[in-house]
């Protein structure tokens, strides 16, 4: 690090203190070179207490991991660690090389997830009454983005606004549509139509209905979803699959507030609240001419965050789904350990809420009411803990002087003074052992 001039070091120090994670930098001997403000706050150890000292004097398992990273040259990612009873972190560590490719040390970056883990623990004794329970998926909204979506939908629920909810499959778009319907206190029904489940040739009649006179004069008139949902809400799922001709009719309906049955000539008033959803990138589809801009801009668009973007909501969702599943099978709801909650937090949840519910159902069954541990989780969700990486004896360079002297004395006793055997036991050269013995007066 001596090659870094004072100006560059100043930039580097500011950078380290500007990030939201704890950062520790060590040289190849395990001596702490950098310790940022977040690390001070998480561990209560000031810079002047730890910089210049060996990392193993403060964190033995953490020092083992850093030495393993330096020895192997392979970084580690998302390693869970519980360094203190009240702290839970994810660690990423990488080796550092100079311009000549020479190893000079390693950096560890720790993300504090204590809040999420503690929230999970608190839920066992403090049930939350803020959950909307009228839909398929509870609208837990500790996440700020989800709060904004729910707040806007709730505030405008009694207004004649048409909303377009975008987001991945399984993020709860239909649940939000139902919430809007209930919040608006509408007297009519909530009806849903999946635009991708009906042949395109039948979509128009499903939506707009048809006039029997247009089909020979003897057929009965058939109302469409717009009429059946009078004074209620019509939810149009996956609106992006609508043919352009149907998109044009729908855009005209929203613009004019009226529609025509297929074959009919009498305009009918649009008297239902419209909420649509899409899993596609509609702006991109508009630019490619696959989705009409007139229809796109007829809606107020809201983006619903994916589950991996709202990790603050995971503890409550897990507990709710676990309790629900345990009740169905007649078992008591199992507890989640801190390690399990950490694993659920770091997983990316590609299947969103349905996948989470299925996993909780699985855990409720296989746990049989007992506490859920990492071994209980499906393999794809399990994580690596720092205890896993740090198994075995601690490398001698990671230890404080007092611990190092004690370990050397122990090795010499176990080998009855045989210095070659003691050196092998300690994992150092015989020359290094002679030097250490002289250093400590052994």
UniProtKB/TrEMBL annotation:
Cited NCBIfam families: sensory_box (TIGR00229)
Return the PANTHER family for the record.
TRANSCRIPTIONAL REGULATORY PROTEIN
Q: Is Transcription among the key words of this record?
A: yes
Domain spans labelled PAS: 8-60
Keyword Metal-binding attached: no
Q: Which UniProt keywords apply?
A: ATP-binding, Nucleotide-binding, Transcription, Transcription regulation
Q: Domain Sigma-54 factor interaction spans what residues?
A: 139-365
Which SMART domains does the entry mention?
AAA, PAS
Instruction: Name one matching Pfam family.
Output: HTH_8
Name it.
Answer: Sigma-54 interaction domain-containing protein
UniProt xrefs under SUPFAM superfamilies: Homeodomain-like, P-loop containing nucleoside triphosphate hydrolases, PYP-like sensor domain (PAS domain)
Q: At the top level of its lineage, which domain of life is listed?
A: Bacteria
């Amino acid at each position: 690090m001596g090659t870094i001039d004072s100006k560059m070091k100043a930039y580097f120090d500011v950078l380290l203190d500007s990030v939201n994670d704890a950062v520790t930098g060590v040289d190849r001997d395990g001596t702490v070179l950098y310790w940022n403000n977040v690390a001070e706050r998480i561990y209560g150890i000031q810079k002047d207490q730890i910089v210049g000292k060996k990392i193993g004097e403060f964190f033995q398992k953490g020092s083992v991991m850093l030495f393993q990273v330096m020895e192997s040259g392979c970084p580690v990612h998302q390693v869970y660690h519980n360094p203190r009873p009240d702290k839970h972190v994810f660690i990423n560590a990488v080796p550092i090389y100079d311009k000549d490719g020479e190893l000079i040390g390693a950096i560890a970056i720790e993300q504090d997830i204590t809040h999420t883990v503690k929230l999970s623990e608190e839920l066992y004794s403090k049930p939350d009454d803020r959950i909307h329970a009228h839909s398929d998926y509870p609208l837990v909204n500790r996440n700020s983005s989800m709060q904004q979506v729910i707040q806007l939908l709730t505030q405008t629920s009694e207004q004649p606004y048409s909303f377009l909810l975008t987001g991945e499959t399984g993020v709860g778009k239909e649940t939000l549509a139902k919430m809007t319907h209930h919040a608006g206190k509408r007297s009519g029904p909530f009806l849903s139509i999946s635009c991708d489940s009906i042949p395109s040739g039948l979509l128009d009649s499903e939506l707009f209905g048809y006039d029997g006179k247009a089909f020979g004069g003897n057929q009965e008139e058939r109302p469409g979803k717009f009429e059946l949902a009078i004074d209620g809400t019509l939810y149009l799922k996956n609106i992006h699959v609508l043919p352009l001709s149907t998109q044009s009719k729908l855009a005209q309906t929203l613009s004019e507030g009226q529609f025509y049955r297929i074959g009919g000539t009498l305009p009918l008033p649009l008297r239902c609240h419209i909420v649509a959803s899409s899993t596609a990138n509609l702006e991109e589809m508009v630019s490619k001419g696959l989705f009409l801009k007139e229809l796109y801009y007829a809606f107020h668009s809201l983006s619903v965050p994916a589950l991996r973007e709202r990790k603050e909501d995971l503890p409550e969702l897990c507990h709710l789904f676990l309790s629900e599943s345990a009740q169905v099978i007649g078992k008591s709801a199992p507890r989640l350990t801190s390690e399990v909650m950490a694993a659920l937090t770091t997983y990316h949840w590609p299947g969103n809420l349905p996948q989470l519910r299925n996993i909780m159902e699985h855990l409720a069954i296989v746990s049989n009411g007992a506490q859920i541990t990492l071994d209980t989780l499906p393999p794809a969700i399990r994580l690596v803990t720092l205890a896993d990486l740090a198994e075995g004896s601690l490398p001698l360079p990671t230890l404080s002087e007092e611990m190092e002297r004690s370990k050397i004395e122990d090795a010499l006793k176990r080998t009855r003074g045989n210095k070659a055997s003691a050196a092998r036991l300690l994992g150092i050269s015989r020359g290094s052992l002679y030097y250490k013995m002289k250093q400590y007066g052994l």
